[in-house]
Amino acid sequence: MTTGRADIVVAGGGPAGYLAAAALAAAGLAVTLVDPRSDARWPNRYGAFADELQAVGFGDVAGATWRRTEVRLDEARTIAMDRAYAAIDGEALRRRLAAELAGHGGVTVDAACTGADHDERGVTVHTSAQGAWRARLLVDATGHRPRFVTRRGPDPSAFQCAWGVLGEFEGPAPDPDTMTFMDWSEPGDGAPAGVPTFLYAMPLGEGRAFFEETALASRPAASFAYLRGRLDVRLRQRGVRVVRELEIERCLIPMDAPAPDRRQRVVGIGGAASLVHPATGYMLTHTMKVAQRLAAALAEGIRADRSPARLASAGWDAVWPAGERRLHAFYALGRDLLMGLDAEGTRDFFEAFFSLPEAAARAYLSRELAPARTALAMTRLYARFDPALRQHLHREVLRRPAELIRGLVGLPGAS
Ligand SMILES: Cc1cc2nc3c(=O)[nH]c(=O)nc-3n(C[C@H](O)[C@H](O)[C@H](O)COP(=O)(O)OP(=O)(O)OC[C@H]3O[C@@H](n4cnc5c(N)ncnc54)[C@H](O)[C@@H]3O)c2cc1C
């Protein structure tokens, strides 16, 4: 039994699903978003550089914002970034997207998508609610372990792991205008030993703060007990005492999800499309851009009455354009380089990285590398590396020479 018809069914109502659904509806398409709890609060706390959020048209969902962002390497070395950072107000973002979706006639359904049957004209999407939806195309936004998208490679094995506490604290007051993007200093005596971790800290005023201990990328995943142990020691060492825990965040982000198979009839977005930045774990502002590109491509394809297979292919080109596919090798190189470093090597790496010209560091973090600039940034980074780091880089580069060369030459439209 068919319950309804749409141009596009979006499976998943996390940030990626809502971003895609709202953009597709605004582009004039009939959209149905399906999620078992379509109006539930998202569980994760999101953050982004304020200028990036602004640039993709979502400056209005910035919550607490810090004028300065710093990277602390150890007791002696701190790098100040002249860049504001924002905690994203997840509820404001979700409500804005839900209103945009509804305002353009989109529909939300509280159910899980349980299956999809593709045929020449489109797809029948089965749900856990009664009935099924008929559409031209299914967009999978079901997260990092996608329900429908298939990928070309083994399951992820490298993860960003973090243990965070939002709470009320007593102790030395942090600078309210500075967000600590990374603090790689040693947590202190008695901390469990293992992979290097850093503190991500947001002072929230009135004795409240969010502190998170993070293993940037580790294989196998660092355990929450390990991260929690290091955070406890770090805070104690600084004389910071938790008075009241308001929220605990357990974060696990796959950092090496294989590329999706672009020949499939389902198009993915967000975690489902492996859009996580492999060296930072960030995804959201990039997905905001990708949602707009996807909507434009699918709206054009549907107006031109393209076949579902051609629509899907155009959709994947919008989600993973050729240039971004090729440059992915450079972000993955950053991840693998970091995974092979001990704490001291990690500090040296970030000291070199953050002393690059600001535009180059920014382009790497924001995934806006262009080939000529990439080559220049790599050369500058190399010049700042010590011999051990250089050797490690040689090894990692030699593991993927063809991909890196492809990334540096012949990128369409790159500056
Ligand atoms: C704790 C944490 C913190 C993070 N912080 C940041 C950050 O600060 N900045 C950043 O850029 N990135 C961050 N990330 C990375 C990334 O942005 C998030 O993982 C993000 O939530 C991924 O969005 P998504 O919509 O792809 O998937 P999800 O948020 O996982 O949403 C998937 C949705 O799909 C639904 N679903 C699942 N199966 C089905 C089905 N069969 N049918 C219908 N619906 C289904 C689920 O109910 C869920 O609502 C963080 C990740 C984590 C885990």
Task: Record the SSE blueprint.
Layout (H helix, E strand, L loop, with lengths): L1 E4 L2 E4 L3 H12 L4 E5 L10 E4 H6 L6 E5 L1 E5 L5 E4 L3 E4 L1 H14 L3 E4 L2 E6 L4 E5 L4 E4 L1 E4 L18 E12 L7 E6 L14 E8 L2 E11 L5 H14 L3 E14 L12 E2 L15 H20 L4 H12 L2 H18 L3 H12 L3 H8 L5 H14 L2 H12 L2 H8 L7
Parallel strand pairs: 1-12, 2-3, 2-13, 3-9, 6-15, 13-19
Antiparallel strand pairs: 4-8, 5-8, 6-7, 10-11, 11-12, 14-17, 14-18, 15-16, 16-17
Bound molecules: flavin-adenine dinucleotide.
Description:
By secondary structure, the chain is α/β, with parallel strands linked by helices. It has helices at 15-26, 50-55, 90-103, 224-237, 284-303, 308-319, 322-339, 343-354, 358-365, 371-384, 387-398, 401-408, and strands spanning 2-5, 8-11, 31-35, 46-49, 62-66, 68-72, 78-81, 85-88, 107-110, 113-118, 123-127, 132-135, 137-140, 159-170, 178-183, 198-205, 208-218, 241-254, 267-268. The chain contains 12 helices and 19 strands. The chain has a 7-stranded mixed β-sheet. Strands 9-3-2-13-19 form a 5-stranded parallel β-sheet. Helix 1 packs parallel to helix 3 (90-103). The longest helix has 20 residues, at 284-303. The protein is globular and about 65 Å long. Mean pLDDT is 93; it is low at 411-415. The protein binds flavin-adenine dinucleotide. The site of flavin-adenine dinucleotide has 31 residues, from helix 1, strand 3, strand 4 and strand 18.
